[in-house]
Amino acid sequence: MSTTAPPTPPAPAREENRTARLITDGMDPAKVIVAVSVGVGLAQDNRITGVLWAVEAVVFAAVIPLLLIERGKRAGKWDDRHVGQVQRRKTLIPAIMASVAVGIGGMLALDAPRQMVALAAAMVATLAVILVPTSVWDWKISVHTAVAGGALAMLALTWGPLVWAAYPLVAVIAWSRISLRDHTPAQTLAGALAGTLTAGVVFAALAS
What we know:
Layout: H1 11-26, H2 29-41, H3 47-74, H4 86-109, H5 114-137, H6 143-159, H7 168-179, H8 185-207
Helix pairs in contact: 1-7, 2-3, 2-6, 3-4, 3-5, 4-5, 5-6, 5-8, 6-7, 6-8, 7-8
C-alpha cells in the first residue's frame, strides 16, 4: 500500500516560513527579557550594579523558565520551546510566575533599585493577565507579542518616548507568529495590548 507524501509548499511560501521562524526564534520572550532587563539596568545610577541586578532578573525570568521548558520537552510534555499547547501553558505559566516571584523576593531582601523590582513585578503581572484567558477560555494569547510590547513600554518609561518608534517590531513579531500558524491575529493583538498596558501601568506605578 503506497502513501502519498504531503505536497511541497511553493518556494515563496517556504521562504516566508523560514523568515517567520527566524523572527519567532530570534525575538522570543527570553531574548527580549534579556534586552529589557539590561536596558533598565543600564539606566540605574550605578550601571555596574544595575547590570548585575539585570542578570538576577534574567536568571529568574528567562534562564529558569527556559530550563523548565527544556525539561518539559525531554519529558514529552510539549513539542517545542514555544509551548503551543494551551493545556500545558496552564501549568507552565504559573511555574514561571513563581520563579519570577522568587527573584522579586531576592531583590526586596537585598534592597534592589526600585526600577529593577518594578521590572520583575511587571513581568509577573503580565503573565497573570495572560493566564486568565488561557485558563478560563482555553484561548492562547501570544506571549511573544505580550513580552515585546511590555518591554518597549518599560524601556520608553525608562529612556524616553523615542523608544516607542521601535513599536513596529511588535507587529513584525505578530506577523511571524501568524505566518507560522501558532496564533491568530486576534491572539497576537491581545498579547500586544495586554503586555503594553499591564507592564506599562505596573512599571510606572512601582518605579517612581
